Structure formats: C-alpha cells, structure tokens
Amino acid sequence: MQAINHAVTALILKKTFPEAPLLGLILTTEAVEYLWVGLNIVGLEKTDIGPEMQSVSDVHLVHMPFSHSVGTSVILAAVLGLIVFWHGGKAAKAIALALSLGVFSHIVLDLIVHAPDIAVFPFFNPSKLGTGLYTNQPLLALALETVWGILCWWIFRGSWGLLALIVTLEITALPLYSNMINAGESLLTGQDTIFALVILAQMITTTALVWLFARKRTEAQPNGNAAVIE
Ligand SMILES: [Zn+2]
C-alpha cells in the first residue's frame, strides 16, 4: 500500500487515542517500510523489478521475511508497546497501545493489496499471504486505497486541505497503478535499490505533509463558531 494510505491510518488512531503524538503515530504506520528500505539497501531483503517497470504489478517483492511477515510485525508492535509502557508517564498505556496498533496496521493493509509475498513468520512460509490485487487488479487496489484514505480523513474530521492532500497523492500515484499511463516508471526497471530510495523519499515527504495538514484541525462548535484543535 502506498505511503499516504498507511500514514492516514494514524488519523484514526489519533482520533481514538488523543494522548498519542500524531507524528509518532504516522511514523509507526510506516515502521515496517522503513525496515524494508534499510534491509533492501544492505541486501538482506530483495526486490526484483521487471521485465519492464510499468506499474506495481512489475514490482516483485521476492524476499522480505524480516520486514514484512505477520510474526515480525506482531513482535515489533509488542516490543515498541512494552518500551513505551515501561517508560511510563501519563497515559502511557493508551499511547503504548496506539503506537503498537500503528505498527501492526501496516501488515494488515499490505495484506489487502499485495501479491502473495507476505510470510506468516520469517522462513515459515509454506504459502505466502496477500490478495494479489497489485498483480491482477492494480487499479482496483488504488480505488480501495483511495476509499481508505478518505474514510480515515472523514473519521478524523480533518480539514479540507488534508482531504485535498490525500486525493492529490492518490491521483498522482495513478501512473504507478496503471500499465496504460506512464510517467517515467520504466526508468526504475532493474533498479531495486533506487526503487527503495524512491519509496523512502515518498514516505518522508508524506509523513511531513500529513503531519503538517493534520496537526491542526477545525471542528464546528455548538455555538456555531469554529475551533482549532491541536
Ligand atoms: Zn509495506
């Protein structure tokens, strides 16, 4: 799932756990992907792009047992939650739970759209998991991701600016989800490390933008005025 649709998950968590820091929540939703970028760069995980990069269906995540497995996601989420909980402080329990859910949300959302490339546990993968939408129906995957992005915004009661950001990022991702529309993706053919760096740049940019646009949201008050809530 593309960066924006992981990041918007943090909006629901922020709405549910107002004590949790928004930036921290956004970062946790992408923690698994940051790990994937790092492991691809050092060569412990492998991505094959080809024979010609036209859309996500040409990105083959052939080896990613550590970053993207259900088991490691549970462990990562639990470890982070326990560290935050032990660190203590006001509302530590709620914040720990929110951050853990943020980490675990990543693999759940990926399972909905990925090719069957997600192991249950590292090296325990008699059959890998994933609906296969990225391979068979990438445009349907984008449609689902867009619905998810807007749903998160609606639950959060975000600003119109935040909605515009979400929709703009979904639309600009169209060439990546369509074989018919090309905007230079073919340059990434065979460039798996460059691809990981592009994803890293996309995540950092998206994190900054979502945090900026969601940091303040305007909610209508009973007296008819609007109040800015941080
Ligand atoms: Zn992922």
Please write out the topology.
Elements: H1 3-7, H2 9-16, H3 22-29, H4 31-42, E1 46-49, E2 59-63, H5 70-87, H6 92-113, H7 133-136, H8 138-156, H9 160-172, H10 174-177, H11 192-214, E3 217-220, E4 226-229
Antiparallel strand pairs: 1-2, 3-4
Helix pairs in contact: 2-3, 2-6, 2-8, 3-6, 3-11, 4-11, 5-6, 8-9, 9-11
Bound molecules: zinc ion (ZN).
Summarize the model shown:
The protein is mainly alpha-helical and 230 residues long.
Principal-axis shape equals globular
Ligands in the model, by name, code or SMILES, are:
zinc ion
- DSSP helical segment count: 11
Helices and strands: which structural class?
A: mainly alpha
Q: Write down the overall mean pLDDT.
A: 90
According to DSSP, the number of beta strands is 4
Strand content bin: 5-15%
Radius of gyration: 18 Å
State the strand order across the main sheet.
1-2
Parts with pLDDT < 50 across at least 5 consecutive residues: 218-230
The domain count comes to 1
Provide the helix percentage: 55-70%
GO molecular function: hydrolase activity
Protein name: Metal-dependent hydrolase
Organism: Pseudohalocynthiibacter aestuariivivens
Keywords: Hydrolase, Membrane, Transmembrane, Transmembrane helix
